[in-house]
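Question (not urgent): is this output format expected?
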Amino acid sequence: MSASLPPTIQRLINDLARLPGIGPKSASRLAFYLLRGTDPTLTTDLSEALVELKENTRFCSRCYNITEVDPCETCDDHNRDQHIICVVEEPLDLVAIERSGAYRGQYHVLHGAISPVEGIGPDELYIEPLVKRIQDGDFVELIVATNATLEGDTTARYIERRLKGLPVRISTLARGLSVGSDLEYTDEMTLSRAMEGRQSL
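Got this back:
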């Protein structure tokens, strides 16, 4: 007869294993770490943080970045260039570009990239709100800062086609970035140079 885990622990392991990058073994280690309770406040703090995450965060109605206020602080900063917009796949890409200090314009977060293999098409992304922002706004340049991957390039080309005929210059980051790399893992200096050396798409 094999020993089984109590249902409460098994549920936590199953739920942790649903997170990206967490397999069954890592999920088990995390669950038992929390169970041992070496830090008595950790489980309480973690559960409160998760509740607050769902209750207090939303998407900015302009750029679709994650925020607690709408519009977000970046969109509401009138010291930023209002005539240039940078399109990124994920909120962490925006954070990476901000860390580089090379860009002081507006943003638009797509929340993914076109990937037919994963069943992600243009309608699953925030591309149409981007098109509307360009049509209604006074932008002179749009920087497509998607990842240097097949999905990122496909998304960039789709955006270029959707904006064809609109009076906005479309550029992309210089390819000092490694092909296949994600922006969120790129160092600040490389990102800064890629932003400065951007090219027309």
